[in-house]
Specification:
By secondary structure, the protein is mainly α. It is built from seven helices and no strands. α1 packs antiparallel against α2 and α5 runs antiparallel to α6. The two termini are 29 Å apart.
């Protein structure tokens, strides 16, 4: 997973290139491996295997599959919804700030925007609700954070299973 920090506003960020970068790199390197088969005939099997695996990874990551979150599915959702773009942008910003040593409680509150139950049917948007609960907890607002986490556990939403497990441990 390559997590980059967006440098522009969420409206100006290139989500297509961001989400397809890995897919395109896999295809590119697979093509290079195929071309190298002609230069290095002694290792054709190795290069062919490398190319095949690269193409398979590109397909499984680039094509949106029903029920599977991958770059293709994320991009498809982002092209349909500015809310999903904003959620992705904010998560990338949060990740960048955390790698620089900043705690959630010290981040700009606007990164943790409110979401509706309908919006939380998207995994990327529902993650913002989870981060909001973590933000509240880090600020010391334990009761408010607990109520938010309990609400997220009780409602039907798209929070990833690993986060649901973490929420159950907290509650």
């Amino acid at each position: 997973q390559c997590l980059m920090e967006p440098t522009k506003s969420f409206e100006e960020t290139s989500y297509v290139l961001y989400n397809l970068g890995g897919v395109l790199m896999n295809v590119f390197l697979s093509i290079i491996a195929i071309l190298l088969c002609f230069v290095f005939p002694d290792i054709v099997a190795l290069l062919s295997a490398f190319a095949l695996v690269g193409f398979l990874i590109a397909l499984t990551n680039g094509l949106p599959f029903l029920g599977l979150t991958n770059d293709g599915a994320n991009l498809q959702q982002m092209l349909k919804s500015d809310m999903v773009k904003k959620a992705t942008y904010n998560q990338l910003k949060m990740n960048a700030l955390q790698t620089q040593g900043m705690r959630l409680k010290d981040m700009d509150a606007s990164l943790f925007f409110e979401t509706t139950k309908a919006e939380r049917q998207n995994e990327l948007v529902s993650a913002i609700a989870l981060f909001k609960a973590c933000y509240m907890m880090d600020q010391g607002n334990i009761q408010e954070a607990y109520a938010k986490m309990k609400m997220l556990l009780e409602e039907d939403n798209a929070i990833a299973d690993i986060h649901t497990i973490n929420l159950k441990m907290e509650c």
